[in-house]
Design a protein that fits this description.
alpha/beta; six-stranded mixed sheet; Immunoglobulin-like; Rossmann fold
Length: 453
């Protein structure tokens, strides 16, 4: 019986058996059909035998393996691939079912293809995880059919593989590449006009869109033009690049309280904050600043002091990977005490949290003012995008008018929070979750360009 476990009946054979049942029934009414149906049934049995022999005569007729990254990026489309090899001597119809982790809640990872003899093919697809942690992949189930298509033989490969889902390192690499090539504007990061700059010369480089025209080096431009006069396409303006102020401490303070558990597009606000913190920390290191992390909820979580030594980015990634939401009220008094004790140098503090009402902000305002007194504090909280979509729809009845009125009240309170924090000299960002990373980097570059850190 164990040898028959890989054997399955195809849809074509089931349809043929149903057809023969109907023919045998019809033969009782028309006896002359009975010998013909018997002969046809014997032929079907012979074909089933031949089909089974073709499938099982080769011990390993198909080979498959899953091309899986060492870790997956949370909130991003991660590329995966299944490689198939047909070792049969005939063209095989193949059905592939990949047993992906239950966290994806998908049962449609089914692929159908045809493989010629000795042909190799790759099936590419993508998965988007929305939770950090360990994901367990099951087996790759490969069902093979011969050209007759009556029986199926199942092969199973790579059972029980575990992969960790980390914060969005794919997004981090994308921003890192764009920052290195001066193309951050492609993802919504604005060019910030520098108000004053360090006089320490760094290099002469080609002009790119958004550079200050006052830094054009006309002598270098003239020399480059002379060198490329035979090929005018190679000519370009050259500018003087100056070093930014370096080694400024930049801390991401991440609230893990219940206010950060709200979902948006499959991810929680905490996951958006973690992904943005990872990207911003990497940009800060590229800008030669020092990046640190502090997590907190009803008590202080983990503190990673600001640094920029080799391997520090890996420490940040591992720290953010382990963070989980706590369903308790956030203790800002403990946050202030911890910052006062462990962060002595004036730093840029990016506080990722969420305030739904003005009264909720007022309860924490004394601690925010104390933090802003010793450091440059940037409070980052979130718009309710579902509420915005409700307000954009016209009201059709009294109930919808009532709901829109309440929605307008909450939207107004968010704007009032921004205004009140600004009155105390506290920088703020009110952003939709999907725009969090770009808006945070924009603000960081703006504060750095203005010399506030």
């Amino acid at each position: 019986m164990k040898s028959l476990r890989p054997l399955f009946v195809s849809t074509r054979l089931w349809l043929a058996l149903i057809a023969f049942v109907l023919l045998f029934v019809a033969a009782y009414a028309l006896p002359f059909l009975f010998p013909l149906v018997q002969v046809a049934f014997v032929v079907l049995v012979i074909l089933i035998g031949v089909d089974g022999w073709l499938l099982f005569r080769t011990k390993a007729g198909v080979f498959a393996r899953r091309e899986l990254p060492d870790r997956l990026s949370n909130g991003d489309q991660n590329p995966l691939a299944i490689y198939l090899e047909n070792r049969y001597v005939f063209r095989a119809d193949v059905e592939v079912i990949d047993e992906i982790p239950f966290q994806f809640q998908r049962r449609d990872v089914l692929f159908r293809t045809q493989l010629s003899p000795r042909e190799t093919r790759a099936i590419a697809y993508e998965l988007r995880p929305t939770r950090r942690g360990e994901y367990n992949f099951g087996a790759i189930n490969v069902f093979v059919l011969t050209p007759l298509g009556l029986l199926k033989r199942r092969y199973q490969f790579e059972q029980g593989k575990t992969v960790a889902v980390y914060p969005s390192f794919l997004q981090m690499r994308q921003y890192e590449l764009l920052a290195a090539t001066n193309r951050l504007t492609e993802v919504g990061v604005k060019r910030i006009r520098r108000i004053g700059q360090s006089t320490e010369f760094e290099q002469v480089r080609p002009y790119t869109t958004g550079d200050d025209i006052r830094t054009i080096n006309w002598k270098a431009t003239a020399r480059r033009t002379v060198m490329t006069d035979r090929d005018p396409r190679g000519a370009s303006l050259m500018i003087n690049a100056y070093q930014d102020e370096r080694s400024q401490p930049v801390y991401c303070l991440i609230d893990k309280g219940r206010v950060m558990q709200s979902p948006f597009d499959g991810l929680t606000l905490l996951d958006y904050a973690i992904n943005a913190s990872l990207v911003l920390s990497n940009i800060a290191l590229i800008k030669q600043d020092r990046a640190g992390i502090l997590t907190f909820s009803d008590h202080i979580g983990q503190l990673l002091p600001a640094d920029r030594r080799t391997g520090h980015m890996l420490k940040i990634l591992e720290l953010l990977y382990r963070q989980k939401t706590r369903f308790l009220e956030t203790d800002y008094e403990s946050l202030y005490a911890s910052v006062r004790t462990h962060i002595r140098q004036r730093s840029l503090l990016l506080l990722f949290t969420n305030f739904e009402t003005v009264s909720a902000m007022h309860r924490q305002l004394p601690y925010l003012r104390r933090l802003a007194k010793d450091h440059l504090l940037l409070v980052i909280f979130f718009e309710n995008t579902e509420l915005r979509s409700l307000l954009d729809q016209p009201a059709a009845d009294t109930e919808q008018i009532y709901l829109k009125t309440i929605g307008e009240k909450f939207t107004f309170e968010k704007k009032q929070i921004v205004k009140e924090l600004s009155q105390y000299g506290i920088q703020t960002i009110l952003t939709a979750p999907q725009n969090l990373t770009a808006n945070t980097i924009n603000k960081y570059l703006e504060l750095k360009a203005r010399g506030m850190i």
